Amino acid sequence: MKTKDLVIVGMFTALIAVLGLLPPISIPGIPVPFTFQNLGFILAGCLLGSRLGGLSVLIFTILVAIGLPVLSGGRGGFALFFGPTGGYILSFTLIAFIIGLFVERMKSPKVWQVFLINALIGAFLCNLMGGTFMAFNLKQDLFTALKSVMVFIPGDCIKALIAAILAVKLRNNPSIQKSLRIN
């Protein structure tokens, strides 16, 4: 891996951590807060592709595991992987990787195409995985848990749209294309 790639991966890991400085929004009755960090995971996949985007999020996940307070609300630590938010935390690397797989194969992506990928994977699949893990962890009925996390879908779709707009705009910028090696 080139030094330039390492720097870009590190910058995206830092961006995700910075998004954690925005306070989480608690939703009554749901032990998982609404955060802005998944915007960073989605954007990492969109701009860096599967390999580098997934790596940046994996490094972020490792930072969480070793206890750095990089999650929204200043949280961190291995115990979080076994709590109600564990499924979300574990899904983030996979989400960035899958989004990257789809977007990096597009020749000249349109905002609506990238939004569709981001919404299906970054909003729906992430909440499906997170909600399933939450149900298991809290010993809830799966349908009840999945129904409760549906409250995140509108906000996550807005983040998916923001990421799509930014990704398409940045991917169409020649200097960004050269920096990120986007074809």
From TrEMBL:
Gene3D superfamilies: 1.10.1760.20
The protein's name: Biotin transporter
Principal location: membrane
Gene Ontology cellular component annotations, sorted alphabetically: plasma membrane
Membrane topology qualifier: Multi-pass membrane protein
Keyword Glycoprotein: no
Native source organism of the sequence: Macrococcoides goetzii
Transmembrane segments: 6-27, 39-66, 78-103, 115-136, 148-168
Pfam families documented for this protein: BioY
Family of the protein in this entry: Belongs to the BioY family.
GO MF annotations, alphabetized: biotin transmembrane transporter activity
Keywords, alphabetical: Cell membrane, Membrane, Transmembrane, Transmembrane helix, Transport
Annotated compartments: Cell membrane
Coiled-coil stretches: none
